[in-house]
Amino acid sequence: MPGGAYWAFRKDPLAFFTRTAREHGDLAVFSFGPQKVYLVSRPEWIEDILVKSAGKFRKGIALERAKTLLGEGLLTSEGQQHLKQRRTIQPMFHRQQVQGFADAMVKHAVRWRESIAPGARLDITAEMGRLTLAIVGETLFSSNVQGDADEVREALADAVSGFAVAFIPGFDYVSKLPLPMFTRIRKARERLDRVIHKVIAERRGQDSGSADLISMLLAARDPENPDEGGMSDAQIRDEALTIFLAGHETTANAMSWTWHMLGSAPEVEARLHEELATVLNGRTPTVEDVPKLEWTRAVIAESMRLWPPAWTMGRRAFEPHPIDGHVIEKGSLVIMSQYVVHRDPRWWPEPESFKPERWLQPSDRPKYAYFPFGGGTRLCIGESFAWTEAILLLATIAQRWRFVRGREPAPTTEPRVTLRPKGLFMTARQR
Ligand code: HEM
Known about the structure:
CATH 1.10.630.10; three-stranded antiparallel β-sheet; 18 helices; globular; binds protoporphyrin IX containing FE
């Protein structure tokens, strides 16, 4: 059992989890203060926890705390409430529906690629954040939220910074103190609420007909109880904020890491350019091109293998659960880390190498050796949205631009709720 686990985790979470799994096996046990924690790293057991035995587990500590921001939205609700919301909202994220959002994705990618100048030094993570925010903003609100974007981004960043401190022992107590950080988080939440409630109020006053997610949330009915009426404003607020938050930072990170990896893999990049030339022949991509862009998809899949935007997932055991002759005690935390499993040499030969070609060959690796979108009833509802968006953005931008790091230092990792590259500066070169 690793001692001083909490501080080692705080210092370098990625190294801590990787070391713990490699040294203590697929079921490693340690403590964060009084909290017993299991790090589970065998794909079959992860599948068991997320899918087959999911009923015995609930969300982990960070997401329980995220309720202060996201209320009872999809990401944070549990049990019957979650199932009801999931079946009500699921149709909005079906593949056909997502295809309807593809135009907005390409439109913003084109706008972005036209806004940059050759030789510009770009903070790639910030740029991708702005781009994906504009896209989720448009699909949710069918308006360009760019005007409000900086305010919303700032408010979100402040609010999200609260998640990182949620691990501190005694957080429940300290979060009630009038410290500037907590006051900032509360104010950020109030600001976000104001924007979202304004939009809901405007939309309730209008005839339906708009194809954005807010209108769909207003019109949505639980298919098992269709006469029950729609969601309350409070529920719509929680769902909209959840989609807004879950729907842009993760994809922005996936895109940023992808540019970073492409910048140091000239052959991979050349093959990407070749595919874009063959499939698109100079025209802007559309949703019909998505299935044809196989290499583009493989590049993103491989980038999310090495740098999974959701790098860890937590669950709390609500009943004792046996794994491999051990019993996970009731109340324990279970952590499954995509970052650790995606780099496990048992499933990934040359795990540290960026090799998109591994996605073009059939493989017998276990299903949960790769789980960037989670699994089971809590599988990311936006998975199809995210793939479509990432492929279209990469294709549209890479048609015109390459990004080179040159002498800039390599980015550092910022593993918070999501795994973000920090300090990723690249120079734009026209193709
Ligand atoms: C590359 C991009 C993305 C990644 C890696 C990602 C990853 C994940 C993961 C791992 C979960 C499960 C968390 C858990 O079970 O503890 C999740 C849930 C969720 N994601 Fe995503 N996501 C991405 C994009 C999106 C997008 C674009 C949207 C919406 C437009 C979205 C909305 C959600 C929602 C609402 C949930 C909660 C689902 C539920 O519990 O029923 N995500 N995501």
